[in-house]
Design brief:
Shape of chain A: elongated
Shape of chain B: globular
Radius of gyration of chain A: 46 Å
Oligomer: heterodimer
Strand content of chain B: under 5%
Strand content of chain A: 15-25%
Number of strands of chain A: 7
Distance between the termini of chain A: 107 Å
Structural class of chain A: alpha+beta
Order of helices and strands of chain B: HHHH
Helix content of chain A: 40-55%
Number of strands of chain B: 0
């Protein structure tokens, strides 16, 4: 064993700078070796596979890609259907907005403009009662009034306007009338959206509004207007008991 | 003893940490490892011949690794990286076998 002595010297611990370097290099070698072996084992699957296996793997992959392509087609179709569906949603939204506007005109929550008439009723003797005005209102409604507001002067001199809706109540007061809690004094003025000639005709019916006002000393002045604006609004109150069914 | 322990420690570290090799280094690491193995076999042979020198080992180890990597890099740039890698591996393999044969003769006299 002539080689054993030098070999033991090679393996014997020494501590010089160059030995540290040697140790570091061998550490690096071991590290690289392990890393390389491991990474080869991870991706060596296909490299080491036989040709038949590779063909089978390729078949499977193309089958899978076919399936995925079909899935893409299905999903694309669904997406386009949903997109067109959202178009329908927009139409529904536009319809809902339109309905809201429509119902707002009826409920008095939005302003309304259109052709119509203004009916001015003076009352120099404070004899025009709420019932006369109610008759006028009902004549206007029968004539197809779509939006109505009653204007007058408040007791403090400021102009007042009240939108007329289904619940509107007219009550007599000593100086004039009270419309839904707002005191108004003459002259009164109805601003009405509707067919002007029908509305004007309704005011002029013999024994109707004009005659009744004239009997108590007032005057009625009906003006047909190309475009009137019913701008008085009414606050929306949510119903306490009624629910949409 | 210390170099052998360092080698084992390196292997253990590589197995425990198992870092992913950066993709730029992936073609060079196997060649570098083979070159380093060649240097180690050369060192063992030199030790047995009684002509081992630390500095020579360090220089040959580093230069082996660098030259092998450089050759492969050059091959990659020229579009013959695969063939040059094979060539480097063949040459280093022959050297390793030669050194291994010398070591065998030293240890077993055969």
């Amino acid at each position: 064993m002539t080689g054993s002595a030098p070999l033991s010297r090679f393996l014997r611990p020494r501590a010089r700078r160059v030995d540290v370097l040697v140790a570091a290099l061998l550490l690096l070698l071991g590290f690289g070796l392990a890393v390389q072996v491991r990474s080869t084992r991870n991706d060596g699957l296909l490299t080491n596979a036989r040709q038949e296996d590779l063909v089978q793997i390729l078949d499977e992959l193309s089958n899978r890609s076919d399936r995925l392509r079909q899935e893409v087609a299905t999903l694309t179709e669904t997406r386009s259907r949903l997109t067109s569906g959202s178009g329908a949603d927009q139409a529904a939204l536009a319809e809902a907005v339109r309905r809201t506007q429509l119902l707002g005109v009826i409920a008095g929550t939005v302003a309304a403009t259109g052709p119509g008439v203004t009916v001015r009723i003076t009352d120099p003797r404070t004899q025009v009662s709420a019932s006369v005005l109610l008759d006028a209102l009902e004549e206007l409604r029968n004539a197809g009034a779509e939006a109505v507001q009653i204007e007058g002067t408040r007791p403090d001199g400021a102009p007042g306007a009240v939108r007329v809706v289904a619940q509107t109540a007219l009550v007599d007061t000593p100086e004039g009338i009270e419309v839904d809690g707002t005191h108004l004094v003459a002259p009164y003025r109805f601003v009405v959206v509707g067919d002007p000639s029908t509305l004007a005709g309704a005011m002029a019916i013999p024994g109707g509004v004009e005659d009744a006002v004239r009997r108590v000393g007032g005057t009625t002045d009906v003006a047909r207007v190309e475009r009137v604006r019913v701008g008085a609004l009414r606050a929306v109150s949510a119903p306490r008991y009624a629910r949409a069914d | 003893m210390i170099p052998a322990a360092a080698l084992v420690l390196g292997v253990v570290l590589g197995l425990v940490l198992h870092p992913t090799v950066p993709s730029e280094l992936q073609p060079y690491l196997p060649i570098a490892v083979v070159a380093a193995v060649d240097a180690v076999f050369g060192a063992i042979r030199a030790q047995l011949d009684g002509i081992f020198d630390d500095r020579v080992f360090v220089v040959s180890f580093v230069s082996n690794v660098l030259v092998a990597a450089l050759v492969v890099f050059l091959g990659d740039q020229l579009g013959v990286g695969g063939q040059l890698s094979t060539g480097v591996v063949v040459v280093l393999g022959i050297r390793i076998f030669t050194n291994a044969a010398a070591i065998r003769r030293h240890l077993f006299h055969a």
